[in-house]
Specification:
By secondary structure, this protein is mostly helical. The chain folds into two domains: about 160 residues, Helix Hairpins (Orthogonal Bundle), CATH 1.10.287; about 70 residues, no CATH class. About 80% of the residues lie in helices and about 5% in strands. The chain is built from five helices and four strands; from the N terminus they run H-H-H-E-E-H-E-E-H. The relative contact order is 0.14. The structure holds zinc ion (ZN).
């Protein structure tokens, strides 16, 4: 018994639903991979920020150490100042102390700038840490969601594939090979509706002879241009039924 328009419409719908599921099954892991890559980039930013904060702290410690050196040098010079007897030595020491006091002021300014830098980087690190924590949770949630969804979708896909196999029983043996070839070529759209006297797959006009054969429903009709298996859409079938009597 040849396939009815209803059989073919159902088969086309099953193919399209299976394709939609396959698309979802493959797009999920792609989305996840993109999010994971973005997460890795954020983690790298966080690592870099942690390193630069550490460097800024080391810089500050060096400056503080340098300041201590200047201060103890000034203390030593002050001790010497009280011990020298000669006026020119006294003056030279005073000049040295004045010079070192300038260096001390400069070091103190540098330390203030360095401390501000540490503060800024500390805040930035905290912001990045919170960001990474939040997005890591989002990625984990997405992964979990995709895992449970894909199990469900794989199960649905298996059911659809079984249903497609059943529906394909309506394709007569003589047309099996051609059907396999167009499925391999067009996938879910190996079938096409014939609407307004044209193939919906390639939009080429269908001959009146083919329309008649489609209405008779005694044999399968393939588009002469693209090879797709044609079927009539519902209104055209019901018109046929009315005029056929
Ligand atoms: Zn066509």
């Amino acid at each position: 018994m040849p396939a009815t328009a209803q059989n073919l419409r159902d088969l086309h719908t099953l193919h399209q639903r299976a394709r939609a599921l396959r698309d979802r099954l493959s797009s999920g892991p792609r989305t996840l991979a993109a999010r994971q890559a973005a997460q890795a980039a954020r983690q790298a930013d966080l690592d870099a920020a942690r390193k630069s904060l550490q460097d800024a702290k080391v810089r500050t410690q060096k400056l503080e150490h340098g300041l201590k050196g200047i201060e103890s040098k000034i203390d030593d010079l002050k001790v010497k100042l009280n011990q020298v007897k000669k006026n020119d030595e006294y003056k030279a020491l005073q000049n040295q102390i004045a010079h070192d006091n300038n260096a001390k002021s400069k070091a103190e300014e540098d330390i203030l700038v360095a401390l501000e830098d540490v503060e800024t980087r500390t805040a930035e690190l905290a912001r990045l840490e919170a960001d990474v924590k939040r997005t890591a949770a989002e990625v984990a949630a997405l992964q979990q969601q995709l895992d449970s969804q894909s199990t469900q979708h794989r199960e649905q896909l298996r059911e659809l594939e079984a249903a497609i196999k059943d529906a394909e029983a309506a394709i007569p043996d003589v047309h099996r090979d051609h059907y396999r070839r167009i499925v391999a070529r067009y996938g879910a759209d190996a079938l096409a509706a014939c609407e307004d006297n044209s193939c919906h797959g390639c939009y080429t006009a269908v001959t009146p002879q083919m329309i008649n054969e489609l209405m008779n429903g005694e044999t399968l009709i393939f588009c002469l241009s693209c090879g797709r298996l044609l079927y009539l859409t519902e209104p055209e079938v019901s018109t046929t039924r009315r005029t056929g009597k």
